[in-house]
TrEMBL record:
This is Glucose dehydrogenase [FAD, quinone]. GO terms for molecular function: flavin adenine dinucleotide binding; oxidoreductase activity, acting on CH-OH group of donors. It comes from the Eukaryota. Belongs to the GMC oxidoreductase family. Residues 52-254 form the Glucose-methanol-choline oxidoreductase N-terminal domain. InterPro entries: FAD/NAD-bd_sf, GMC_OxRdtase, GMC_OxRdtase_N.
Length: 293
């Protein structure tokens, strides 16, 4: 396992620390977008920053642990385009299996007085409380999180930590993959080039190579390895192994992050009001404000 980042720290497992780690240099890749006058209008130059986790567990080790499923129409749209097996009805069993197996999905029991106020205001505006896992996703609901017993349950903690001492598993941290070696005749991947501490290394494989570098770095590595649009690869003097539309048609969800409110009584949102008693509650029971992202 080649990982460009570092080990997930113990502090990162405390949900309340999510805001402190999100976007911190060293824990994530900051992918800047091309300047635009139609998006990111509140950001200088109209440049969006795409945050992606860097370290074992990827983004699941530094995000806000919020969990939801995509809208059923997204999956049904893929199926209607000819991607058989991807309808919402067909993928639902896999969601249910994932939500009850390794990466646990929980409903946080900690509530601040603000929650009831928000739900009351929502009802006044005509919105209703919903189950986010139903087909209707327009409304308000108490968020589900990928936490277990009050701790962040990242992909690394759920899948990797229980088996990391296996003799046939080797983990190399701070290792940045630069190229996948592919036989141009058989189109078969047979190795990986990476750098660690400024030194270049090559690993040859007998079986398969799993590329799991995210929606930005995965197509980037494919193109660096010769799989991508011919005109683009040739403009960079990269030998073409296979001309494919790699890196095209990336879609991201809409986001609006600047909706802020001034609270007359912030309560537990004020750091100096976080008490030793609350910390003791978290250590003893995994509950309280420290268990909430």
């Amino acid at each position: 396992l080649l990982e460009a980042g570092r080990e997930e720290s113990l502090v990162q497992s405390v949900p309340l620390t999510a805001a402190a780690f999100y976007g911190r240099i060293g824990n994530n890749w900051e992918y800047p977008s091309e300047p635009s006058d139609t998006v990111c209008k509140g950001v200088p130059g109209g440049v969006c920053l795409g945050f992606k986790g860097r370290g074992l567990g990827g983004t699941s080790s530094h995000n806000f642990m919020l969990y939801t499923r995509s809208h059923h129409r997204d999956f049904d749209g893929w199926a209607s385009d000819g991607n058989y097996g991807w309808s919402y009805r067909e993928v639902l069993p896999y969601f249910l299996k994932a939500e009850s197996s390794y990466v646990k999905v929980s409903s946080n029991t900690f509530e601040t007085p603000m929650i009831s106020s928000v739900l009351e205001v929502a009802r006044e505006f005509g919105y209703r409380a919903i189950n986010p896992f139903d087909k209707v996703q327009l409304g308000f609901y108490r968020a589900s999180t990928t936490t277990l017993k009050g701790q962040r349950n990242s992909a690394a903690r759920a899948y990797l930590h229980p088996v990391r001492n296996r003799r046939n598993l080797h983990i190399s941290m701070n290792s940045i993959v630069t190229k996948i070696l592919i036989d141009p005749d058989t189109k078969t991947a047979y190795g990986v080039q990476f750098t660690k501490n400024g030194v270049s290394h090559t690993i040859l494989t007998k079986k398969e190579i799993i590329l799991s570098a995210g929606v930005i770095a995965s197509p980037q590595l494919l193109m660096l390895s010769g799989i991508g649009p011919r005109h683009h690869l040739e403009s960079l003097s990269i030998p073409v192994v296979k001309s494919l539309s790699v890196g095209y048609n990336l879609h991201d969800h809409y986001g609006y992050t600047q909706l802020k409110f001034n609270l007359r009584n912030p309560g537990t949102f004020e750091p100096h009001k976080t008490t030793a008693q609350q910390f003791d509650e978290y250590i003893s029971n995994g509950t309280g404000p420290f268990s909430s992202p």
